[in-house]
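User: New here, any thoughts?
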Amino acid sequence: MKKSDLARLGKEDAISIIGKEWMLVTAGTPDKFNTMTASWGGIGFLWGKPVAFVFVRPERYTHQFIEESDHLTLAFLGAENREILNFCGTKSGRDYDKVKETGLVPVATEAGNVTFEQARLTLECRKLYKTKFTADEFIDKAPLERWYNDKPGGGLHDVYIVEIENVYE
């Protein structure tokens, strides 16, 4: 894993890598962490900083690790690792050892956060802001109806804005 600069992000199509390739959102320490697949998110510039936007339902096991950590990583594994992403997006770390089940190889960053040997790109991020989606705040109710009402899997997402501090490839 080599450290890159933020210019690396300029070479990526953020919409495609998150929405089509998906990512692993990981928080915790090398001794105790959890990871989950996410296909919702974004990368941009806010408050004079390069940032990412991450959406996590409070019911997800990874949520508690994010809440307890100042940092998280976003790891992009590439299409060749779709089976790992599928597993980590449908199975809970409460019930499964995702590393054992998928063959993921955890790697600690210089700052002690967790990414994976399989990652072609990792964004190491520091939490800046959190808010919660609320049903009353939806101006267009169509996404609320489509993604939340009568859907299994829990409640509305928490939204984290995180500063991208390091990029690894």
Q: What stands out?
A: The radius of gyration is 15 Å. The longest helix spans residues 82-90.
